Amino acid sequence: MNIVHFQRKPVSQRYFSIENSFSSIRNQLASMGVSVEVFICPHISQGFLPRLRNTISAFFHQKDLNHITGDVHYLNLFFSKKKTVLTIHDLVFMKNPSALARKVLKLFWLTLPASKSAYITCISQATKEELLIHIDFPEERIKVIPTVVEEQLFNFTPRNFNIACPVFLFIGTTPNKNLERVAQTLKGIPCLLEIVGPLSQAQENVLNENKIYFRHEVGISNARIAEKYQEADVLLFPSTYEGFGMPILEAQLTGRPVITSDYSAMREVAGDSACLVNPFSVESIRQGVLKVIQEDEYRKELVEKGTENVKRFSAHNVAKMYWALYQEMYATQH
What we know:
Layout lengths: L2 E5 L9 H15 L4 E5 L7 H12 L5 E4 L15 E5 L10 H17 L3 E4 L2 H10 L7 E3 L22 E5 L7 H8 L5 E5 L4 H9 L4 E4 L4 H10 L2 E4 L8 H9 L3 E4 L2 H7 L4 E3 L4 H13 L1 H14 L5 H19 L1
Parallel strand pairs: 1-2, 1-3, 3-4, 4-5, 5-6, 7-8, 7-10, 8-9, 10-11, 11-12
Helix pairs in contact: 1-12, 5-10, 8-11
């Protein structure tokens, strides 16, 4: 069986969780004697012509089994349906404020790609349930297979908690990451907010208005993102929307307590191993922050539970799930 993973072309050298996740899966498959080729789109997925060129190029790289690993869903428009599996990580694009944009995105990122896929995998039950709201697709052919964290990149690193001025790591600056509420939450709390991602002028204004001591970095490497977790005391991740919530596992692998949302996929991924808060309530987030800062035993409990939680998402277990799906698909072709 010849298998190929289709991946987007990175916009820069910054950290990409999708690509790293499937790299770990391929390493595990290789240890099981399963070889997987990788096709990387020749063009960045921006604009009509580059995407059309990507689609045409992908067509000529089909094998016995074609797996689009995420984001570039449209690649399979000319693929053989029975040989194609599509992974959908989230449906954040369906939150676009423009009704016209939502229609176009739904057509080329959901409806048409689904019509050319034998199976779809979603990285969380929450994503699967949301997907079924938007498309008509046999539920039994949508498999929930979680993503994985690159375990070799994130190592358990003990750190003495800085009660006087804890470092809160904040990953991502898109609207769903909830930075504005976090700024209000941390007002008056001595801390350093370490932000990964570009800041708009409006976001900088909110941080300054609330007198938040912050630093931010943009376009950082895999190695640097791992260092950021090691340098932090807590991951603060009260997102209003995620398809999965990879930073939760990255922080837990590093040995850091996590504050995240009691909502959707984040609750599914974290379970009882994180401090769960209402992401739409500044007061709820603030109570969670203060609890983690003030209660030493609670922090230790979160770290211990987090270490156990990440085992559910090991690359070995996830690779076995994909291999079972690949075998099932291949068997139906012969």
